[in-house]
Amino acid sequence: MDYKEILDKIEKVLEGNAHLDDLAKRGRDPFKVLISTILSARTKDANTKAATDKLFAKYNTPQLIAQGDIEELENLIRQSGFYRVKAARIKDVSKIILNDYNGKVPEDYEELIALPGVGSKTANCVLVYGFNVPAIPVDTHVHRISNRLGWVKTKKPEETEKALSKIIPKEQWIRINRIFVKFGQQICVPINPKHQLCPIEDICPKDFTMENEMKKARERRKNQ
After folding, report:
1. Domain 3-15+136-223 belongs in CATH node 2.40.33.20
2. How buried is residue 135: exposed, middle or buried, by Cβ count under 10 Å (0-12/13-18/19+)?
């Protein structure tokens, strides 16, 4: 399978930039990417962008966030949701980066995931969008679309990351999240995907197995 050709076809029909891609294009800053990705947990791109912009307008360095008033941090990022937890998290992470890494975000996967609250997706986002290092950040869009295309048959994002890294050439890794996030927001949406607009509709097996199994599992939990 020519993964580059498929990604090229998808990319041609997409509009605009996803939040992290836009942030990277404004100037690569691994710290801003890290903090913004933490804020993005369980919320929409628009909410993440609004909270990120408000936060960085006043606190845009590890030192400023580490020393910032927690209530003010909460108010600035309120739109991202779960703002109390996230405010404490970004403050803790900023302190570690300031004290242990001289204010510079480490360019190492293992060091990144050792930071509080930083998992594989966040670490890989920092590598891709902050350092331009090949990695595969798997969020809900990448997980869903990879399964729908039949590229993987996985139940968890961590499994998707491992499976994709085995089949997709490394030189294409850095494109996957950027393209699939926009694709998942604009065309291959969670409910009622827009098949009539899809540039690869003719080769897509439309495998909804993973999503159907998740739906059944949610229904079983409700009925317990």
Report:
1. no
2. buried
Told to judge if 2 belongs to the known catalytic residues of this protein, a careful annotator would answer no
Distant-in-sequence, close-in-space partners of 172: CB < 8 Å, separation ≥ 6: 3, 4, 7
Active site residue 194: no
pTM score: 0.95
Given 32, 139, 155, 170, the catalytic residue: 139
Catalytic residue among 49, 91, 121, 182: 121
Query: How far, in Å, CA of 198 to CA of 188, rounded?
Result: 8
- CATH number for region 29-131: 1.10.340.30
Handedness of CA 64, 66, 71, 76 (dihedral sign): positive
Q: What are the domain boundaries of the chain? A: 3-15+136-223, 29-131
Which tens digit of pLDDT belongs to each residue from 117-161? 999 999 999 999 999 999 999 999 999 999 999 999 999 999 999
